[in-house]
Each structure stands twice: as C-alpha cells, then as structure tokens.
Amino acid sequence: MGCTTITYDAPLRKYLICVTDGGPGVEDKNSYILEADEISGPCRLVTFMNKFGRQSEDPLKGENNVVLRARVNVSSVHQKNKPFTELIEYFGEGAVDGIVDLDAEINAHEWVSRGERETAMIRLSWDLPQTVRRVWLFDRPGPGDHIISGVLLFSDGGTVRVGELPSDAKSCKEMTFPPKTITWVVFAVDAVSEETANTGLAEMAVFRD
Ligand SMILES: [Ca+2]
C-alpha cells in the first residue's frame, strides 16, 4: 500500500479511507476506498479503481529532478539509437530527457549502449554543486535487456550499491541516501541478465528531496 488518507463522514458515521498503491514510477496507480465504523477498523472495501489516478505532476519533469540540467556522458551508444547525430558515440541524452517510453520498438527516449553488458556506464555532471538524496533508475523497456546490479559512485567519494532494476520500466529502482552535495554521479552496471545484448536505461533521475 502507498499513500493513505482518512476522513470522517459525520452524516454516514463512517471513516472513509482512500489508499493509492505506492512505489516510485510513472505508471497509473490503483486506488481504493474502504469504510470503517472505528478508525482502528475493521475495514470494508467500498470501491476499487483499477489504474485510477495519474500522478498530477510528472516527477521526472519537475524542478526537483536535477538531471534536466546535467551533462551526460556514457560508455558507448548504439548506432541505431542516434541516427541523426554526427558524433554517434557518447551521447546518452535519452536517459535524461524526462521521458519513459514503454514502447520497446521505439528507443528515441532511451540510452542504449553499443553491445555492452556489464561494462556499461553513465555519468552525469553539473557545473554547480547539487545537494541530492534520491536516485531513480529505469531499466530499458521490454524483457530482453535487464540490469541485475550496479553501483552509484558520487563525487564526494561515496558509493551506493544498486540491486536488480524492475525489468519493464513501468516502475523504477529507487535509491535513497542521506543528503550529498556532489558535482557528478556515475551509475556503473556490473551484472546483467543472460539475454542482455545492449545494456541501457530508459531514464535516470536524481532528486534534491
Ligand atoms: Ca528517457
């Protein structure tokens, strides 16, 4: 369960509890409403709203996400991923464009490495120090390419181990840590699934809070 709000409806003499499924990501969330005579329950389900309630503000595009002002370097880029750029190597903007495109056939909004597996790496850097406390990582959509583990390396010398990413990019891996003031962060992949051919990311977000 995720966000929960409770209100007391005096004419009905009921507590009404609205619950929205939690978890970081950009997909629509299930919501449901419960009722109870006492605040401590028991609760009865009134209605279940499947995939009701898109997040009102896209967190990937908000001011809080500092990747939108970052420079990006990647260990390699798949040629088909950037057909119109002169310098096909080392462009990874698809990972920081604020868009998670779940259509695996179109990878304009992804960073796709050039045949890399557990060597793939992305680095974000800023001219001015950024104080951050949270990172989201979206794997490439589709079941083929899948990151099993990696590590975040920060310019302050800190590291954060990253476990398996959700494989379909509908949700992301969230890493939280005490606030860090940094000028760069690297996500280095160190394990991928057997089927992985071109490791990459649908999106990476770094939040101030
Ligand atoms: Ca993207």
- Compressed to H and E, one letter per element, the order equals EEEEEEEEEEE
The CATH superfamily of the largest domain bears the name: Galactose-binding domain-like
Shape: elongated
Name of the CATH class of the largest domain: Mainly Beta
Give a structural overview.
Helices cover about 0% and strands about 45% of the residues. The model has no long low-confidence stretch (mean pLDDT about 85). It has 2 domains: about 5-50, no CATH class; about 60-205, Jelly Rolls (Sandwich). The strands form 2 sheets. Strands 5, 6, 7, 8, 9, 10 and 11 form a 7-stranded antiparallel beta sheet that branches. The protein has a 4-stranded antiparallel beta sheet with strand order 1-2-3-4, with no helix packed on it. The chain is an all-beta fold and about 210 residues long. Calcium ion (CA) binds near residues 100, 110 and 203.
